[in-house]
Write a structure and sequence with these properties.
The complex is a heterodimer of chains A (296) and B (264).
Chain A (H helix, E strand, L loop, with lengths): L1 H42 L1 E2 L9 E2 L3 H7 L2 H35 L4 H5 L1 H4 L2 H12 L5 H8 L14 H26 L3 H9 L4 H12 L1 H15 L4 H6 L11 H10 L4 H31 L1
Antiparallel strand pairs in A: 1-2
Helix pairs in contact in A: 1-14, 2-14, 3-8, 3-11, 8-11, 11-14, 13-14
Chain B lengths: L1 H25 L17 H8 L2 H32 L4 H16 L3 H14 L5 H7 L1 H18 L3 H8 L4 H29 L3 H6 L8 H9 L7 H16 L2 H13 L3
Helix pairs in contact in B: 1-12, 2-12, 3-6, 3-7, 3-9, 3-11, 4-7, 7-9, 8-9, 11-12
Chain lengths: 296, 264
């Protein structure tokens, strides 16, 4: 009798400790979701931390105001332009580089390639100051040697965004290289041998063997870059503050200047919800893709 | 083909190292002599950066990184282990994985306004502990994802033996799983640390007193102040803030490569 009581005690003890162990991280995720719901709630209030008045429910007014704001519309366009051009360039050149490095078999270079991903973004911004400064920067000196003059890329509304795209490509192409290269290194050696013995030449080797077998890694790199490119803030904020005019005002810069800096919590929350909704276009396929790999 | 491939490797390595090389060279520019590369290298840039309190910024960053990584491990290690090893249903696992993927995919900026408002009421603004708590938005999804993948990896046998000897889940986690996952846990800490070491948006919004600012925010202030034109100082400060994460290059390279092959 006593024995069975202690056995069932141990059983409950075990169940309890299972839940105890699984709880911390899941509670953290629950807090994340709660934060999102709180943001949605804040976005439907008129609420500024600068004023002492209590928050007032205004329904969708904040959203209507933000959506009707030409600067917001511009920032959607600027962000879309940035995301599309940076990600296309990064993935295309990243896959090309990864393939080259894979075929060369030179892996010693791989640790070096992570350096740009470890360096703080702000350091990259500082580097870009030195590089594109049109008076005495690195590129300006090279241009002078060739008898050309360096345009003021960051000061011209027509080129500022492209100068930032170029910096992003310079830093993050290597992220794509690493992910795709890792995918290629997972291809069994026999497959390559078989293809070689069958006489596959260079292009068929790339397009019929290596790239198809690394396609999950390529898709992963593409999605991770898309997700991350939407978060473009620091590079823009420190290089141009969203200017000249609103030529480089991305969604996060808009969030900062309209919501966070003036402590206008209601507007800021509405912008946050809109950003999350836009990112969902990429986020939901990503979740689907991750689930598919876990299911297998 | 071989020569072309060599060229590609060299080019990739060059794009990785060129910015760092430019920053290092520029950091030797003496104040008041705007010339790149410097004709007479000096360390005055570094001295000036330290005089401006940049060492304090590095210390603050280190403190925040350690706090953040410790919290992330405390939250994600038990959960990752439990999800992988304690026989939770497939349903539970997939729902957790979906949540992790979703929180990884949504931009951290979406939560910043809510966090700012909550911290305002909780008195956590301008507080390094508060910043580390907020940073869980970046690192918790990463940590859960990594630890769960690592927990699926190590061999089951030792754990079965411990289970037969009558060790409960908590003891198995502490005495079997943690030691066996140690390399993975360390890599998780390193990647979480790197993720937030250079973070700018949250740190610049949630901190404001000079003696609490992280290195990234201080560097951002330098880069947009009159020191923008003192290349030596600016470059010295950015070189100093680049060194600590780059020191972990091998760990990071190995984990990132592994990761990509596993279930990103």
């Amino acid at each position: 009798m006593e024995k069975s009581a202690s056995a069932s005690g141990a059983f409950w003890n075990m169940r309890l400790s299972r839940y105890l162990l699984v709880a911390p991280g899941l509670l953290g995720l629950a807090a994340y979701v709660a934060g999102l719901l709180y943001t949605i709630c804040l976005s439907m209030h008129y609420y500024s931390l600068f004023r002492a008045e209590t928050p007032r429910f205004v329904g969708l007014d904040n959203y209507l105001a933000v959506l009707g704001d030409p600067t917001f519309q511009k920032s959607v366009l600027v962000t879309a332009t940035f995301v599309a051009s940076a990600v296309i360039l990064e993935v295309a050149s990243g896959v090309l580089f990864a393939y080259w490095i894979y075929m060369s078999g030179r892996r010693w270079a791989v640790p070096l390639l992570t350096v740009p991903l470890l360096a703080p973004v702000v350091s990259y911004v500082v580097f870009w100051y030195f590089a594109v400064d049109f008076r005495r920067g690195v590129f300006a000196q090279a241009a002078n040697l060739l008898g050309l003059s360096m345009p003021n890329l960051l000061g011209d509304p027509g080129t500022a965004l492209w100068a930032i795209v170029a910096l992003d490509v310079l830093q993050l192409t290597l992220f794509v290289v690493l992910i795709v290269l890792a995918g290629m290194l997972g291809i069994p050696g026999e497959v390559l041998w078989a293809a070689r013995i069958d006489g596959a030449r260079r292009l068929p080797m790339a397009f019929k063997v290596v790239l198809p077998m690394a396609k999950t890694a390529i898709l992963a790199a593409l999605m991770l870059r898309l997700i991350d490119a939407f978060r473009i803030f620091t590079k823009v904020w420190l290089l141009t503050r969203g200017g000249p005019g609103d030529a480089t005002t991305t969604l996060e810069v808009f969030l900062y200047t309209r919501g966070i800096y003036p402590l206008d919590i209601g507007t800021g929350a509405a912008v946050s919800v809109l950003i999350a909704a836009l990112v969902s276009v990429v986020a939901i396929p990503y979740v689907y893709l991750v689930l598919r790999t876990w299911r297998a | 083909m071989a020569r072309l491939a060599d060229l590609a490797v060299a080019l990739a390595a060059a794009t990785a190292l060129f910015p760092l090389a430019v920053i290092f060279l520029a950091s030797l520019i003496p104040p008041g002599v705007p010339q790149f590369p410097p004709a007479s290298p000096s360390t005055e840039g570094y001295q000036e950066a330290l005089k401006l309190g940049f060492d304090q910024g590095l210390l603050n960053s280190a403190a925040v990184v350690l706090l953040t990584a410790a919290m992330t491990l405390a939250l994600s290690a038990p959960t990752g282990y439990a999800l992988a090893r304690l026989g939770f249903s497939r349903q539970t696992l997939l729902v957790s994985v979906a949540l992790v993927a979703l929180t990884r995919a949504l931009p951290p900026s979406s939560l910043l306004v809510a966090i700012y408002d909550a911290f305002w009421h909780l008195n956590l603004l301008n507080n390094l502990l508060g910043l580390a708590i907020a940073y869980q938005v970046y690192t918790l999804p990463l940590g859960l994802w990594l630890v769960t993948a690592f927990a699926f990896d190590y061999s089951q046998e030792v754990e079965h033996a411990a289970q037969i000897d009558g060790a409960g889940p908590v003891r198995r986690f502490l005495h079997v799983a943690l030691p066996m996952m140690a390399p993975g846990i360390a890599a998780t800490a390193v990647l979480a640390g790197i993720e937030v070491w250079g973070e700018y948006l949250y740190a610049s919004v949630l901190l404001n007193s000079q003696d609490l600012l992280t290195a990234s925010v201080k560097l951002g202030h330098l880069a947009t102040s009159e020191f923008r034109y003192e290349w030596g100082v600016l470059a010295a400060a950015s070189f100093l803030s680049t060194l600590p994460p780059v020191a972990f290059v091998t760990v990071a390279a190995r984990t990132m490569t592994r990761l990509a092959v596993a279930k990103w």
